[in-house]
Amino acid sequence: MTTQGQEDEKRYDPRDTTLKFVNRPDDLDPLPPDEGDKCLRAEMSCGHAVTPQSLTGWCRSLLDQGQYKFKCPALKKDTLQRCDAVWSYQEVRRLAVLTPEEMQYFEENMARIAAVEYCEVQTCPGCKTYVEREDLTNLNAQCPICTADKKKAYQFCWQCLKPWKGPAPRSDRCDNDGCVNHDLELLKNCKTTALPQVKGVEACPSIRACPTCGHRVEHDKTGCKNIICPRCQVEFCFVCLKLTPECLKTSSYFIPCSDGVAPRQTSIPVWHRN
């Protein structure tokens, strides 16, 4: 972990001819001239100026939110639209002047987040290694490492993480006591919440499953009713659970669609990735 002192010491080498230095404020964290002049600013591939500190801070915040794609948050020139250009990790690593400790933190978290997005992985209760599930509708999983070690099939429940009991395949639960889908229980029993910025929405379930991938999400109660799922990046309406383009056919960002508040979800969508 990088200390504050290490953060403050980050500087570009003014002799580095591979970087384009610019004499303008940091687009990620504008400071008064007397503060901003303490560090050189370099230009990213999208044209916005950064310092090592601001770039590190922004990209770490994205990682902490479950995002592994680094997008520029600066506004486009003379507009109120965000740039949203995607920076490669190689560019971020170089212009953020990442320390070895920071590179390890970034790369481990990027790999973990990407694995969650593209694979269904779980820790085997026997050997504690990661196992990937290919059939998303079957809770019965087999660990290849434990199977090889024990010379017989080692199966466990993807839901309760105990050795498998009962017939297979199963999509709801195994026969172990207490085998329940905790995400589904949360969806069924969560409290209701109001969305102050959305007219007429005073009692909406506070937790939803993304209608595209099933990822559990909550609304921060600010802004419009639509949110972007941090896993599949699909935008949908937290109120009616329709994808944003469909919802906006009969509504706006701050008014519920014609179908009103969707009831509590009783099943979790399975993400059918291409």
Molecular structure report:
It is a single chain. The protein has a three-stranded antiparallel beta sheet. It is flat, with a radius of gyration of 23 Å. The relative contact order is 0.08. The protein contains eight helices and 15 strands. By secondary structure, it is of the alpha+beta class. The N terminus is likely disordered.
Short overview:
This protein has 274 residues and is of the alpha+beta class.
Annotate the secondary structure layout.
Blueprint: H1 4-9, E1 21-22, H2 33-36, E2 41-43, E3 49-50, H3 52-64, E4 70-71, E5 86-87, H4 89-95, H5 100-118, E6 121-123, E7 130-132, E8 140-142, H6 144-150, E9 155-157, H7 182-189, E10 192-193, E11 204-205, E12 207-209, E13 216-218, E14 226-228, E15 235-237, H8 244-247
Antiparallel strand pairs: 1-2, 2-3, 4-5, 6-7, 8-9, 10-11, 12-13, 14-15
Average pLDDT number? 87
Strand % is: 5-15%
Characterize the largest beta sheet: strand count, sense, and whether it forms a barrel. 3 strands, antiparallel
What is the count of β-strands? 15
Distance, first to last CA: 37 Å
Physical arrangement of strands within the biggest beta sheet: 1-2-3
Radius of gyration: 23 Å
List the defining traits of the structure above.
disordered N terminus; two-stranded antiparallel sheet; alpha+beta; 3-stranded antiparallel beta sheet; 274 residues
